[in-house]
Every structure is written in structure tokens, then in C-alpha cells.
Amino acid sequence: MINTHKENIVVVGGSFNPPTIAHLHIASIAKDFTKAKKCIFLPVGDNYNKKGMISSKHRLMMLQSVIGTKSGDCIETYEIECTLTPTTYQSLSFIKHKYGKENTYYFVMGSDNLKEVSGWENATELLDAFYLLTFKRGNLDSDEVINRDVFLKKYAHKIITLNIANDIIQNTSSSLVRNMKTLEEARILIDPNVFDYIMKNKLYDFKR
């Protein structure tokens, strides 16, 4: 059940490599659903092991270009500044300490990541302290993921499913953008500011 007495804060983590329209729309839907006034974007650091990752400098600049004027939203650079890759629980605990222990925090993730949560370090502490807001990715339904996992079933009351009817938003990812043949083809999936930044800095392996 969503807390209506304390401030609710949404946290959207990810590589943002690059930021897509999906990141922004899902954050907006999550804020509306939880009645949150703030969304904190949490980009991973350069030591995060993911194929095709560009430097945090560029990822941060692109993210700043799309949320800089959005009231209440901000970027938390904790993971970028960490020498080692923190667990999700460590990152959210840092955010909770920095932005207010009295608030309620909702971490957004797709169903593809939800199925991995029970194997995460500090998974119990994570679900004891925070809520998860999940949305369907591909054919993987969040409720099915929960029902198949004994651990997640125990914490079903802390896992909330967002219904996102738009298939394009639901299934758009940074890797989908990067795999486009040309930057022009990717234009529909990214904010104009991100498009301009990629073009100017010649990022990724697009045929231009």
C-alpha cells in the first residue's frame, strides 16, 4: 500500500547508455502512481561491467540535458563516485540517508531484473527497507515472476506492478537504441537533446 502521509520518492537506476524516452516516461508514470514529487535518477559507475558502456561523463551530460528543467527531479552520482560497484541496497541506503530517512522510497525495475532480485546481495535488507515498482518487459510478467520465486512471494506486499500500456515505452531500452543502424533511426527513441549530444560527440557506432 502506498504511503500518503510521508513524502514518496521514486528512484530510477540504470546505465542511461544513452537515456531513452522510456526512462523518462516510466519515471513520470511511477511518480504519478506513487504521488511522488521527486524522482532520483541513479546512473551506474564506469566500473559497472556492461558491454558497450561509454564513460560516465557522457552518460551524465546526456541525463542532465533531459531532466535539468524538470521540477523536483535530480541525479544522484553516488555510484559514479564509488571506487567499487555498490549493491542496490547500499545505493538506496545512501539515498535514504541523504534525502531523508522519514520518506518512503520506490525503486523502479523491469520484470527482467525482478527475476534476479532473490539472488542479489542484501536482498532481504533491500525488501525490508524499500518498495519495488516493477513493469513488464517483453513477455515476462512481474506477477508470474513473483509467483515462481519463494523469496519474492514472501515480499509480495513490497513489490508493486506498474501497468504500462504503451509497448514501445515498455520495451525500449538503451541497447535497442545503440543497435540501430543509424542515429537518425534512433531519433524516435531519444530526447532531441540526447540526439544532439550523441551527434556532436560522435558517440556509439552509428552509421552517420
Notes on the protein architecture:
By secondary structure, this protein is of the alpha/beta class. It has a single domain, classed as HUPs (Rossmann fold). Helices cover 42% and strands 14% of the residues. β1 (8-14), α1 (21-34) and β2 (38-43) form a beta-alpha-beta unit. The longest helix has 14 residues, at 21-34. The protein starts with 7 loop residues before the first strand and ends in a 7-residue tail after the last helix.
Could you tell me the strand content as a percent range? 5-15%
Which class do the helix and strand fractions yield?
alpha/beta
- Helix share, percent: 40-55%
Q: Which superfamily, in CATH terms, is the homologous superfamily?
A: HUPs
The number of distinct β-strands equals 6
N-to-C span: 48 Å
Instruction: Give the biggest beta sheet.
Output: 6 strands, parallel
Overall geometry comes to globular
Number of domains: 1
Give the SSE string: EHEHEHHEHHEHHEHHHH
- What Rg, in angstroms, do the CA atoms define? 17 Å
CATH architecture heading: 3-Layer(aba) Sandwich
Uncertain ranges: none
Can you identify the CATH class?
Alpha Beta
